[in-house]
Specification:
Layout (H helix, E strand, L loop, with lengths): L1 E10 L5 H11 L3 E6 L5 E7 L1 H11 L7 E9 L13 E4 L1
Length: 94
């Protein structure tokens, strides 16, 4: 099981990024959440098999049509990171 926290920078709010990322994660059987942050970035926590999480991260580097991703920060996630830690499903919040 792999958990990653990701922060996506650029024009990523108002372009369907959260819903599209959630759909990709669900299709890949990745659990977690995605949310808009007040600074204009999108933050997500991804939990699942290493290859599945990597595939969602690869998608996040370009996002849906209309997005303009300028940077993606990826961090290992663990207890205290708001992690999914064995959760199932994927939610869109904030």
């Amino acid at each position: 099981m792999t958990e990653r926290r990701v922060v996506v920078h650029g024009r990523v709010q108002g372009v369907g990024f959260r819903a599209s990322l959630a759909a990709r994660a669900r299709d890949a059987d990745v659990a977690g959440w995605v949310r808009n942050r007040p600074d204009g970035t999108v933050e997500a926590l991804l939990s699942g098999g290493e290859d599945a999480v990597a595939a969602v991260l690869d998608w996040a580097r370009h996002g849906p049509p209309g997005a303009d991703v300028t940077a993606v920060e990826v961090h290992d996630a663990g207890p205290g990171d708001g992690g999914a830690h064995g959760a199932t499903g994927f939610s869109v919040t904030g």
